[in-house]
Write a structure and sequence with these properties.
The protein has about 500 residues and is an alpha+beta fold. The protein has 2 domains: about 90 residues, Single Sheet (Outer membrane efflux proteins (OEP)), CATH 2.20.200; about 350 residues, Outer membrane efflux proteins (OEP). Helices cover about 60% and strands about 10% of the residues. The chain is built from 11 helices and 6 strands. A 4-stranded antiparallel beta sheet has the order 1-4-5-6, covered by helices on one side. A two-stranded antiparallel ribbon has the order 2-3.
Length: about 500
């Protein structure tokens, strides 16, 4: 078969591939921020351009090398990130599958046969091939080769709409990967803060326990000396036991936070315990975080990007369903050549090209129902997108308020801690001098423990509120590495 013969016979398919056709169904246009009720500015913050570089690696603003290391390790090894990466690879393969429908499908076949006649006439049957040979002598060899092709012309854009939907799904998978990375970074920071908070509260509880045990001893001596009643001793023992009882719960909280950190890093529980065990203060980031404009969330927050891309995909699928209402043009053809040698296959060439048109006549309303189903899916996707945008705005406003109030609360509790510490010192010395009763000392020690524990918790709340604000603003995925599961193929 010569190149000229092949070109002449395949040309109709190439011509069909160049046909320009309309694409039925609505053309997608992303909703404007105003249509989504996005305000011009946040209520709880003055408008200030966001620092995109800071948002990308916000955990570095806490100035804690251990936190920075943990987040980097989590982003590189978290199983949920690997799952999201694999889903992205699946979405890309789906796009390739959809695009393949734009091209003709080709198949080739070939065969060779050798027949031989024997002297004396008659015929014999080859038991292996089933071929019949006539007696009488001589041999003959023949070769055949064929090429089959088929192509569906995308007259009304159903295939292109399907590709459009698949590409939107791919974009959503990318956004879902970014959402997983954002979640891992913030969850790692929050659990690290929780672990440091548990450490701080344990230190406070153990320090107060030591003081209260000393108080029990002092009261015991005074009871033996007949200076006070046994009631004072029992009250002292009660406070000491209550403080001791709080320690196991705090230890449980600490172990749970450290084990969760190990899981986030893709390791078994206990893998990072040695790194976290040395007690360190709860880290804090700068007080002010530049939020930028609310409309910027639409492109920065992965969950909003995913919701918008889901809307684009659902809109394209209306066109896919609508195209089924219209006729479909399909071209099929084949070329068959034969010859006595491989080089002479084009000695005898037979080709055919068939075009067929199919059109729905009566489907019992099924096609219209599919279109209505697709339209309902698009409406639902739009509603989900609007709800996600409003929730994102709520997240930012709440995080801004929480961050601001956490700072105010910590400042006041720092004052309360200082005052209660001084009061406890005065009360202890005055009780030993017999100037006050034991109830006043007891109240002072209770107040000290409460104010110290409250301040530690307020510091942790302040740090956590900052993390939640960065998360609400959509920071944390921009600097994350691409997981191997998103890029490697199967062997």
């Amino acid at each position: 078969m010569t190149g000229a013969h092949l070109l002449l016979r395949v040309a109709p398919f190439a011509l069909a591939a160049t046909l320009s056709a309309c694409a039925v169904g609505p053309n997608y246009l992303a909703p404007a921020p105003g249509a989504l009720a996005v305000p011009d500015r946040f209520n709880a913050a003055a408008p200030k351009p966001a620092n995109e570089a800071e948002l990308a690696g916000w955990w570095q603003a806490f100035g804690d090398p251990i936190l920075t290391d943990l987040v980097a390790r989590a982003l590189a090894a978290n199983p949920n990130v690997d799952v999201a990466g694999a889903r992205l690879r699946q979405a890309r393969a789906t796009v390739d599958t959809a695009r393949s429908s734009l091209f003709p499908t080709l198949g080739a076949s070939g065969s060779g046969a050798r027949s031989e006649t024997l002297r004396g006439g008659g015929s014999i049957i080859d038991p292996t091939t089933g071929a019949t040979f006539s007696r009488g002598g001589g041999a003959q060899t023949s070769f055949r080769a064929g090429l089959d092709a088929s192509y569906e012309v995308d007259l009304f854009g159903g295939i292109r709409r399907n590709i459009e939907a698949a590409r939107a799904d791919e974009d959503a998978a990318v956004a879902n990967l970014h959402a997983a990375q954002l979640s891992v970074a913030s969850d790692t920071a929050l659990n690290y803060i929780a672990a440091r908070n548990a450490q701080s509260r344990l230190t406070i509880a153990r320090s107060n326990l030591a003081n209260q045990e000393e108080t029990v001893r002092i009261v015991g001596w005074r009871v033996q000396a007949g200076l006070v009643s046994s009631l004072d001793l029992e009250q002292a023992r009660t406070l000491r036991a209550q403080t001791a009882a709080s320690i196991p719960s705090l230890e449980t909280n600490y172990v749970a936070a450290v084990n969760r950190l190990a899981i986030l890093l893709g390791s078994a529980p206990g893998a990072v315990t040695a790194l976290i065990d040395p007690a360190k203060p709860i880290p804090l980031a700068p007080d002010e975080v530049a939020t930028g404009l609310p409309a910027e969330l639409l492109s920065r927050r992965p969950d909003l990007v995913s919701a918008e891309r889901a809307l684009a995909s659902a809109t394209a699928r209306i066109g896919v369903a609508t195209a089924d209402l219209y006729p479909a043009l399909r071209l099929t053809g084949s070329i068959l050549g034969s010859g006595a040698s491989l080089g002479g296959i084009d000695d005898s060439v037979i080709g055919n090209l068939v075009g067929s048109i199919s059109a729905p006549i009566f489907q019992g309303g099924a096609l219209r129902a599919q279109i209505e189903n697709a339209r309902g899916g698009a409406d639902a996707a739009l509603g989900s997108y609007r709800a996600a945008v409003l929730t994102a705005l709520e997240d930012v406003e709440n995080a801004l308020t929480s961050n601001r109030n956490a700072r105010r609360r910590e400042i006041e509790l720092a004052t309360a801690e200082e005052a209660s510490r001084n009061a406890a010192i005065y009360a202890r010395s005055q009780y030993q001098a017999g100037l006050i009763d034991f109830q006043q000392l007891l109240d002072a020690e209770r107040s000290l423990l409460s104010s110290q524990d409250g301040r530690a918790t307020a510091r942790a709340d302040r740090a956590s509120a900052t993390v939640q604000l960065y998360r609400a603003l959509g920071g944390g995925w921009q600097a994350a590495p691409v997981p191997q599961t998103a890029t490697r193929g199967t062997d």
